[in-house]
Amino acid sequence: SGKSIRLVLIASAGKLTKAATSPGADISVALTQSMEAALNTNKQTVMASVAEGCARVSVQLRDKSKARATLSAVAAPTILRARSALDAMISSSTVEGSGQAAGQTDAASQALASYLGVLRELVRFCDGSSSRGRAGDSHILSDVLTAAWPVLNDISSHPTCRANEAVLSGLLDVHSQLLSVVPALIGPYFKDLATFVVKSYEVSFCPSALDYVSAAVESFDSEESIGVAAGLDENGKDLIFNQLLAHLSQCTFKYVTQTKRPNECPQLIKALFEMAQRYLLFCPGALCQCPEFSSLFGLAVACLVECKGEVESTRATLIFITQLVGWKHIRLPDAKMAKLAQFACGIDNLLAQHGEAITKACLGGLSGGAPQMLWPSCSECIFSITQHIISSTPGADEPDSVLCTWLRTAMIEGSLVANTKNITPEIGTSVIKILCELAKEGTKSKQKAKMALMDFGKIAKGEASTDVLLAYSMA
Predict the structure, then answer these.
(1) Helices (runs of H) and strands (runs of E) counted in the chain
(2) pLDDT tens across 61-96, in order?
(3) Would you say the C-alpha torsion 410, 412, 415, 421 has a positive or negative sign?
(4) Is 386 helix (H, G, I), strand (E, B) or coil?
(5) Contact between 72 and 147 (Cβ < 8 Å)
(6) Are 155 and 112 in contact (CB under 8 A)?
(7) Residue 459 exposure: Cα atoms within 13 Å on the Cβ side
């Protein structure tokens, strides 16, 4: 199996790389034959596993020129087959009204997507290479990139490929990995790639397009070389990512209001708010200055209900809201904290506008409106809101009245909690008091507060008695 071959290659990597140092020795033939055999299975998992094993062996070769040549040899069959699949896909797509041609197009597109997956794995597992693609370096992937780039370009330029979600996703996944692994080599092409991603998203609404932008935001922050190669200083970087976020947000707003509801496209919602979270962590200026910032936050709040408890999309949305509201309590470099501080009033205004709806959605989720897998995320969001508001008024004897109103409305008067007979006004009051006291103690009490809120959920479901709250009251 592919996994077995991968494990053998990884376990034998030391011996293989040592053998490769002998005069005239060449392990590329054996690795290429393994890759060819995997490709012949036409099984994606087998191909990906063997590609991983071959890449892991190649990067351990001490002679970097030999490592480049070995990896290039391993990648060559995949690149050749990708070209053949692309040609077949284009050829069959030009024959209109033929069922046979449609079947050939589908088969070719599936094959092409699989080969792109192999390239992605080869790139991904070169991430540990000693050269990170700095300007002037000859990266282990440079020869592979030279060979693959014409095929990648031709895929991106053909309408049939851009219209096929599997192929488009595969292509964008390869480019995302390249951003991470060889940022300096990709930098000069970034603006053109960003244009391609936007145009593809406008037609396909493929979540991988947003994943690509997420990877780009992180790469531009962590790898100075890509910004230099792309010709972007800090202001230029903020501007291009601001424009990207604004346009992609506008497209998504239109899509989820006119074409599909959020619960009908959960992977898109997940990708959108994972991208927004990356902006918060790696490019907060572009996020907060985006003209669609408030609308994006409003959509996040709406999705807490609209996603109808779908785990991945709701979790991504909750994480974004939690970290944005609680930005003062996440670990970020001083420059990013200073940037967020400039927009503190705007963030507070968004919380004032949407805080009650967020609180209702989270407590409603804990009381039976969301799967138990989402309880930790719901609890953390509630604590983040409580901590933020309480820490903004240090020394106050009584909790903020607006905060208490939100919590009381959600716990005691809200319709989401009213569907359970297990929550009485007394229980609600006790939980509010416990939560506010723990929030006063700061981040160190976050885990205890989350446990208290999840115990509230268990009480609501009838899985625990009110006695579990005594431990928090007595602490």
Answers:
(1) 25, 0
(2) 888 888 899 999 999 999 999 999 999 998 887 765
(3) positive
(4) helix
(5) yes
(6) yes
(7) 23
d(C-alpha 284, C-alpha 148), whole Å:
34
- CA 187, CA 194: separation in Å to the nearest integer? 11
Instruction: Classify residue 147 as exposed, middle or buried by CB count within 10 Å of its CB (0-12, 13-18, 19+).
Output: middle
Check residue 170 and give its pLDDT.
Answer: 96
List the one residue out of 114, 119, 226 whose CA is nearest residue 164. 114
Q: What six digits make up the tokens of 225?
A: 């070389």
pLDDT interval class at 411 (50, 70, 90) = confident
Measured CA to CA in angstroms, residue 312 lies from 85, 88, 166, 267, 304 at distances of 33, 36, 20, 8, 11
Taking the C-alpha atoms of residue 123 and residue 102, their distance in angstroms, rounded to an integer, is: 32
**Helix runs in 20-141, H state only:** 28-41, 44-59, 64-93, 99-124
Residue 330: phi and psi, rounded to 5, are: -105, 150
CA–CA separation, 221 vs 431, rounded Å? 41
Distance CA 303, CA 357 (A): 11
Model confidence at 136: pLDDT above 50: no
Among residues 35, 21, 33, which one has the least CA distance to residue 66?
21
The whole-angstrom separation of Cα 57 and Cα 78 is: 18
- φ, ψ (nearest 5 deg) of residue 25: -75, 145
* 109 contact partners, CB below 8 Å, separation of at least 6: 85, 89, 161, 164, 166, 167
User: Worst-scoring range by mean pLDDT, 9-13, 146-150, 289-293?
Assistant: 9-13
Residue 272 has pLDDT above 70, yes or no: yes
Two structure tokens written together for 392: 């903004």
Q: Which of 416, 425, 321, 319 is nearest to 369 (CA)?
A: 416
State pLDDT tens for residues 148-162. 999 999 999 998 898
Token couple for 232? 């972007």
Q: What is the pTM of this model?
A: 0.89
Nearest to 119 by CA among 154, 72, 153, 161: 72
Of 240, 320, 325, 220, which Cα lies nearest the Cα of 274? 320
Reading the block at residue 160, the tokens are 């049939």
Taking Cα atoms as reference points, which of 123, 119, 117 lies closest to residue 139?
123
